[in-house]
Write a structure and sequence with these properties.
Layout: H1 4-13, E1 24-26, E2 43-47, E3 50-54, E4 58-63, E5 69-72, E6 82-86, E7 89-94, E8 97-102, H2 122-130, H3 137-140, H4 152-161, H5 175-197, E9 221-225, E10 230-234
Helix pairs in contact: 1-5, 4-5
The protein binds a DNA duplex through residues 1-3, 6, 49, 63-69, 78, 94-95, 97, 142, 144, 151-154, 208, 227-231.
Length: 243
DNA sequence: CCGGTTGTTCAGCG
DNA sequence: GCGCTGAACAACCG
C-alpha cells in the first residue's frame, strides 16, 4: 500500500468523513483510542507516508508500514486496529502503527520535506543533502526527513530516470544530477499518483521489479543496497556511478 | 506453499 | 550516552 502517493489517495477517499463526529470507536490499538469517542474530525492531512486525522487539540497519526491496510464502509475478517463509525459510514484500519500527536501539527512536521505537498521546498532538500555528502543516493532518497513520501519503488524509478547509479554518494553528484534527483523525486511521485489512481502503476515501471533495462536491453542488477538494505534495481550501463 | 516485501522502531552493541 | 546496525514485526501476492 504505502508510499506517499497512496496515502494521498487515502486522504481523498475519506473526505466524506471530514467534519463528522465519531459515534463509535473500537480496535486493538494500545494507546487509549476511546479518547476519540464523540470527537469531531477537523481535517485529514498527510505528511509523506503519515496519514493524519486532526482533532481540535490533538492528531491521530497512522502509518501503514509495509502491511497496513484500510477499508471504507467495508470490513476485513481480522480485527481492526482502529475502527471509527460515523453517521454516514465507517473507516477501518488494520495492522498499522497508531500514535497521538499533541498540540499544533506545524510544530511536529516540516511540511517543506513532503515531496507531494504544496509546501515542498527543493532548495531546503538540497541544503539537507549538502549536509550528508557521504550518504549513498539509494539511502538519501529513502530518508523521510529529506524526501518524505518517497519509498522503495519511487527510489528505483527516480534513479533510473536520472541515470544515476544507486551506490553514488550524494556529495559526488554533479550539481545537475543533484538537482535532477530532487526534481524527479517530486515529479515521479505525481506520476505514481496518477498511474495508481488509474490502476496502471505497475505497467509503467521501468526498473522496479524489472529484469531487463529498457534502454540497453541488458539484465538489471538487483541487490539489497545501502544502510537500509532495500531491494535495488539498476543498470550498470546507463546509470552512472559518481563517487 | 513458501519466499519475498511499497517500512519503521528499538534493543543491543562498541 | 551517543550513533549505528540488524532483528523483529506484519499480511498479502505470485
Amino acid at each position: 500500500m504505502p508510499e506517499g502517493p497512496s496515502i494521498l489517495i487515502l486522504k481523498e477517499q475519506v473526505q466524506q468523513f471530514s467534519g463528522q463526529k465519531i459515534m463509535e470507536v473500537s480496535g486493538n490499538a494500545k494507546i487509549g483510542i476511546e479518547r476519540l469517542h464523540g470527537q469531531k474530525i477537523i481535517a485529514f492531512k498527510t505528511w509523506g507516508k503519515h496519514f493524519l486525522i486532526c482533532f481540535k487539540t490533538f492528531t491521530v497519526k497512522i502509518h501503514l508500514l509495509m502491511f497496513g491496510s484500510y477499508r471504507i464502509n467495508e470490513r476485513k475478517d481480522t480485527r481492526p486496529r482502529l475502527s471509527m463509525k460515523f453517521k454516514n459510514g465507517e473507516l477501518n484500519f488494520y495492522t498499522c502503527s497508531i500514535q497521538f500527536i499533541e498540540g499544533p501539527l506545524d510544530e511536529a512536521y516540516d511540511w517543506a520535506a513532503d515531496v507531494l505537498s504544496d509546501a515542498w521546498d527543493p532548495k531546503k532538500a538540497k541544503k539537507k543533502l549538502k549536509e550528508v555528502p557521504d550518504m549513498l543516493v539509494c539511502d538519501a532518497l529513502l530518508t523521510q526527513e529529506i524526501f518524505a513520501g518517497v519509498g522503495n519503488i519511487i527510489k528505483n524509478e527516480v534513479l533510473f530516470r536520472i541515470r544515476v547509479h544507486p551506490l553514488s554518494t550524494v556529495g559526488a553528484l554533479p550539481v545537475k544530477q543533484l538537482n535532477l534527483m530532487i526534481k524527479e523525486a517530486r515529479n515521479y511521485s505525481f506520476d505514481f499518483l496518477e498511474w495508481k489512481k488509474a490502476f496502471v502503476l505497475k505497467q509503467h515501471w521501468l526498473a522496479h521489479n524489472k529484469g531487463v533495462c529498457p534502454r540497453d536491453n541488458v539484465p538489471f542488477h538487483r541487490a539489497h543496497l545501502g544502510k537500509k538494505h532495500r531491494r535495488t534495481f539498476f543498470c550498470e550501463l546507463c546509470q552512472v556511478l559518481y563517487t
